[in-house]
Amino acid sequence: MKQLNIGLIGCGFMGRTHANAFGKVHHFFDLPYRPVLKAVCARNQDAARAFAAKWDFESFETDWRKLLQREDIDAIDIASPNDTHAEIALAAAKAGKMILCEKPLAMNGPEGKTMVAAVEKAKVPNMVWYNYRRVPAVTLAKQLIDEGRLGRIFHYRAKFLQDWTISPELPQGGAGLWRLDLKVAGSGVTGDLLAHCIDTALWLNGGIDRLTAMTETFIKERKHNLTGKVERVGIDDACAFLARFRNGSLATFESTRYARGHKALYTFEINGEHASIAWDLHDLHRLQYFDHRDEGRVRGWRSLHVTDSDQPYMKHWWVPGLQIGYEHTFIHQVADFLEGLGNGRPASPTFREALDTQYVCDAVLKSARTQKWEKVPGAVKK
Ligand SMILES: NC(=O)c1ccc[n+]([C@@H]2O[C@H](COP(=O)([O-])OP(=O)(O)OC[C@H]3O[C@@H](n4cnc5c(N)ncnc54)[C@H](O)[C@@H]3O)[C@@H](O)[C@H]2O)c1
Predict the structure, then answer these.
(1) What is the mean predicted confidence (pLDDT) over 175-197?
(2) 172 Cβ below 6 A of ligand 1
(3) Which of 91, 100, 201, 376 shows the smallest number of beta carbons within 10 Å?
(4) pLDDT higher than 70, residue 382
(5) Could you tell me which of 26, 31, 19 has the C-alpha nearest to residue 57?
(6) Which helix (H) or strand (E) holds 160?
(7) Is 153 helix (H, G, I), strand (E, B) or coil?
């Protein structure tokens, strides 16, 4: 097994999920490469040192440019806020490093396009962390659709609901609250939450042709943590859109941080000619499946407990019936990335594939402004 030296940038929520995944993947998967936690980078020296010690990194840096200069780093992992992705990725590609980048790929489509051009010019392996594809039940949904079990798809319905920004007292900006700051996040729930729903949808159901959207910012002004002043809120607090897929199916997407009682309710349902499937992040190891071809007397929604060794990824874990969880999706994504390095088939989504999600997000925000249906350009031919 060859070594792959990782340089991780950012030691917040995603820094932890990634460090955990790199550290564990070789225990469960037989892979051509073994990740080595070479260095972690955070701007604050004490935080970087503490994170390195806790997660077994060999060293730490406080400037990501130094990390890129290091010859002992093979892959740069970008787990910092959205406004940093492009600058770091462009420099990392120039330095010839492989790049794993958190979602959303960029602040907007044009920025994402420059990132795609950079990694393709440098010919460096690249991937975006749309980890929900790697929930075994979601991967199983992909298999069932690709096998044609649903037949022609009529409907795609997705939502991602949270409730953590309802208080007007919540400030915007700075550590932990950069998601409310347009300059750092690029958008609100559209790039943060709907991007996940869109990535899964494009993967399961193909490209989106056109859409019409509405957004709302319920709390118009909030104190900014960095300036200390009350400033206008530029992000979308809630977003809903209707879409037509290129395969002729109709879709509804909804996301908000104002759905009292919901913390991370990501759900989707797909209705086809023969069968339907439904999935819910709060019950992530189950896939609901209804097949109209079943004998009428016993026809009904089946709740598939996706834990068996012939179901996606599960042969690498415990024994049938025993579940895995959220953090495993990141371990699966690392495993697929490393597998792809070995066999030359890049793990998805690549930067180019993730650019399609960015284009949908751009069209959503544009439509909310124009109040018109907007065409969605495609980065990948579908
Ligand atoms: N895949 C997912 O499900 C998922 C979930 C959450 C967040 N994300 C994405 O991951 C990224 C990070 O989000 P998070 O929730 O981990 O944020 P976070 O605020 O928890 O952590 C961000 C980290 O980046 C560091 N950072 C900021 N600027 C930096 C710089 N210039 N150099 C080095 N470090 C810097 C911060 O100090 C912090 O440690 C975002 O792009 C977000 O959209 C993805």
Answers:
(1) 98
(2) no
(3) 91
(4) no
(5) 19
(6) strand 153-161
(7) strand
Counting from 1 in the atom list of ligand 1, the atom nearest the Cα of 82 is: 41
What residue segments make up the domains of the chain, in order of their start? 2-131, 132-375
pLDDT per residue as tens digits for the range 14-31: 999 999 999 999 999 999
pLDDT tens-digit readout, 308-328: 999 999 999 999 999 999 999
Q: Would you state the pLDDT for residue 356?
A: 98
Q: Is 106 in the pocket of ligand 1 (CB under 6 A)?
A: no
pLDDT for 381 equals: 57
List, edge to edge, every strand of the sheet that includes 208-216. Answer: 302-305, 286-291, 275-280, 265-272, 153-161, 250-256, 238-245, 208-216, 374-375
- How much is the pTM? 0.98
Asked whether 7 lines ligand 1 (CB < 6 A), one says no
Separation of CA 12 and ligand 1 centre (Å): 6
CA distance 8 to 11: 8
pLDDT beyond 90 at 379:
no
CATH code for the domain defined by 2-131: 3.40.50.720
| 132-375 CATH choice from 3.30.190.30, 3.30.365.10, 3.30.360.10, 3.10.20.30 | 3.30.360.10
